[in-house]
Design goal:
mainly beta, M1 Pyruvate Kinase, Domain 3, 8-stranded mixed β-sheet, 3-stranded antiparallel β-sheet, 13 strands, 32% strand, globular, MOSC_domain, MoCF_Sase_C, Pyrv_Knase-like_insert_dom_sf, MOSC domain-containing protein
Length: 184
Amino acid sequence: MDPDSRAPAVVAVARDDRHRFSKPVRDEIVLVAGHGIEGDAHAGPTVTRRSRFRGTWTEPNRRQVHLIQAELFDELAVEGHEIAPGELGENVTTTDLDLLALPLGTRLRLGASAEVEVTGLRTPCVQIDRFQPGLMRRMVRRERGATRLRAGIMAVVVEGGVVRAGDPIAVELPAEPHEPLPRL
């Protein structure tokens, strides 16, 4: 197989039952439709984090699953930051898929049955610099007059299932016209 034609796949999965920045890598995670990741502190159908509160605790949680591409870790290593899966708080680390280029509403099938719908770009926060000083400015780039966020994407669970490292990822783009990902 040509190395340039590898199929997208899951590199690692992580979850944490407490609100901490980094998440421990697990053998598997269980996605629950409309809820998020079983046992993860960020799971739930509505906003649970004070930093995301916008006036009502009934606001839908559009940040149930955080995905980030492993290729970012290679880029950051060149820039002096060693990062491992789960350390940026992501639940699913992927490879061979440009997550940041996906349009709003893209569906990702993870493994045999789990499916998520992409809801937006993860907005980097000050916790990134607390994790590694200087990392925040590496996660936000200015390119051709525009700001490019590199901290991964957020999604909601539409079909539950088990996800493990090595699982394939299938991509289903929404109908055109495609909308860019908003910041979340």
